[in-house]
Each structure stands twice: as structure tokens, then as C-alpha cells.
Design goal:
The protein is an alpha/beta fold. It contains 9 helices and 11 strands. It has a single domain, classed as FAD/NAD(P)-binding domain. 43% of the residues are buried. Bound molecules: ligand 48F.
Length: 268
């Protein structure tokens, strides 16, 4: 019998990696929906859109997905989920432990793993180590895609031009920093987001219940072609942070998916 290790010489390993990456990445250059950030809101939006047959990719600047979920509350790996969001976790197989009426505990590692796996199984491509650094615009300054670069390039401070790809809709799921929205405000003169002073005011101090309640109503098309979800939505509307309670993040991701699907359908 042939030695199976004989097939994996250095050149064939390198060729497989480059060719396999190139084929999948080229397929991500024209998307229905591009999502910046692989936290709970971004991954949930991605999964629900891909389930409807839309072509979706998530760009995550870190090498790991999951955003703020891993560390639970102060490194204790548990997150809190409310009744309203329970089904979004149960449908991906997360085990929820009832704590008191309408409130559940979830293992943060299990939640990240299962939400991510379900998104990939639904057809989402997740590109890690890639940072969304800008948007592409078209007529009337409509957001029409994203500009990406390696996060490692930013860390090294190298002057390297980015790549860009087109998307019918872009979702800012970058969490507290609202990176995509900030770029739009900074670069498009007169760009008017939800905030009355046209800026991104950032989140307010903690008020768990108020912050949670604000997440879904603040999940909107904030600029033509750009939807904001998760903590980015609260930061844009100067709403409070909420700590390790996550139901609102998953529900905001679901709302972002509904809005994005409507926008994609309008564009045909
Ligand atoms: O922060 P994050 O988990 O965002 P989220 O979905 O959820 C917020 C909660 O985790 C938590 C909270 C709950 O109480 O307040 O913070 O709103 O995930 C955001 C992801 O976006 C990535 C970042 O590394 C993280 O994984 N990210 C940030 N900037 C960029 C980015 C960027 N420019 N390009 C790509 N990814």
C-alpha cells in the first residue's frame, strides 16, 4: 500500500492552500451582504441571511470569531440569555440552563462554537484576520461594498493598499467601536447617521435593562446600504452598555438580517 504521507510534499501543501483560498475568496468578491465583525450580532445576522439563500461573508479582524462572548462576565465563561432570544440559540443546539423565570445561562465557549458552526453550515464564509477599513460607494454615496486589509498589516503599520469587494448591503457589527459607521461619518461630507450631531457619540455607561431594550429599535439602515447591529447600534445612538447579557445582541442580529433581506430584495 502507498504511504499516505507521500502525497503531501511542500509544494502540494502550498498549492492547495493558495488555490483553495483563491477559489473561495474570489467567490466572495460580489456578495449580497458583507458583514464586518463576527460577534454574536454579526454571526446571527449572517446565519439567518445565508439560510434564505443569500450570499454572505463575514470579515473579522481577529483570528478568532465570537467577539465579546468568549470571556463571559469578567472571564467567568457564562453568558445570560433572556426568553425572547432563547430560540435563536436553541435552533443552533446551545444548551440553556434555566436560572429564574425567563432567564437562562449559557456556556460562552459552547455558544461561540455552535453559533459559528451553524452559520458556516448555512453557507456563510467567515474570513478571519481581515479588517474592514472603509466602504465602497456608488451613486449618491450609497454604500456598495467594503474595503479590506489584513489586520496584521495595520498592526505592523505597513503602507499596503487594500482590496475591495462589492455587496448589495453592508452590516456594521463591529461592536463598541462602530468602525464602519465612524468611517462613513469621517469620509462622506454631510453623511447623516442617526445621531443629531451626525457623529458617533459612543455608548453610555452601564444600564443593563435599558441597553438591552434599545438594541433592536436601534438596529436600522443607518445610511443608504449600511445597517448597524449589536453594540455598534447602541454606540451610534448613545445608549447604555449592558455587560454579559446577550439576548439583545442575538435579537439585533435577527433584525439586521430582516432589514438586509428586504434591501437585497429591493435591489433585485
Ligand atoms: O464586540 P462584539 O462581540 O459585537 P456585538 O455583536 O456584541 C457585543 C457583545 O459581545 C458585548 C456586549 C454584550 O453585553 O456588549 O460587547 O455587538 O464583536 C465585534 C467583532 O467585530 C470585530 C471584533 O474583533 C469583534 O470580533 N471587529 C471590530 N472592528 C472590526 C472588526 C473591523 N474593522 N473589521 C472587522 N472586524
Amino acid at each position: 500500500m502507498q504511504d499516505p504521507t507521500a502525497r503531501v510534499d511542500e509544494v502540494s501543501i502550498s498549492r492547495l492552500i493558495v488555490e483553495s483560498f483563491a477559489a473561495d475568496f474570489v467567490d466572495s468578491l460580489e456578495l449580497d451582504v458583507a458583514i464586518a465583525g463576527a460577534g454574536p450580532s454579526g454571526v446571527t445576522a449572517a446565519r439567518l441571511l445565508a439560510k434564505q439563500g443569500l450570499k454572505v461573508a463575514v470579515f473579522e479582524r481577529h483570528l478568532h470569531v465570537g467577539g465579546g462572548m468568549w470571556g463571559g462576565g469578567m472571564l467567568l465563561p457564562r453568558i445570560v440569555i433572556q426568553e425572547e432570544a432563547k430560540y435563536l440559540l436553541e435552533e443552533v443546539g446551545v444548551n440553556l440552563k434555566p436560572w429564574k423565570e425567563g432567564v437562562y445561562a449559557a456556556d460562552s465557549v459552547e455558544t461561540v462554537a455552535k453559533c459559528t458552526a451553524a452559520a458556516i453550515d448555512a453557507g456563510v464564509r467567515i474570513w478571519v484576520g481581515m479588517k474592514v477599513e472603509d466602504v465602497v460607494i456608488r451613486e449618491n454615496d450609497r454604500v456598495a461594498g467594503v474595503v479590506i486589509n489584513w489586520e496584521a498589516v495595520s498592526i505592523a503599520g505597513l503602507h499596503v493598499d487594500p482590496l475591495a469587494l462589492m455587496a448589495k448591503v453592508v452590516i456594521d457589527a463591529t461592536g463598541h467601536d462602530s468602525v464602519v459607521c465612524r468611517n462613513v461619518v469621517r469620509k462622506i461630507p454631510g453623511a447623516e447617521l442617526v445621531s443629531p450631531n451626525k457623529a458617533v457619540p459612543g455608548e453610555r455607561p452601564m444600564w443593563a435593562e435599558k441597553g438591552e431594550a434599545a438594541l433592536v429599535p436601534n438596529t436600522i439602515e443607518v445610511y443608504p446600504g449600511l445597517i448597524v447591529t449589536g453594540m455598534a447600534a447602541n454606540a451610534l445612538s448613545a445608549q447604555p452598555r449592558m455587560g454579559a447579557v446577550f439576548g439583545g445582541m442575538f435579537l439585533s442580529g435577527q433584525r439586521a438580517a430582516e432589514l438586509a433581506a428586504e434591501l437585497v430584495a429591493k435591489q433585485g
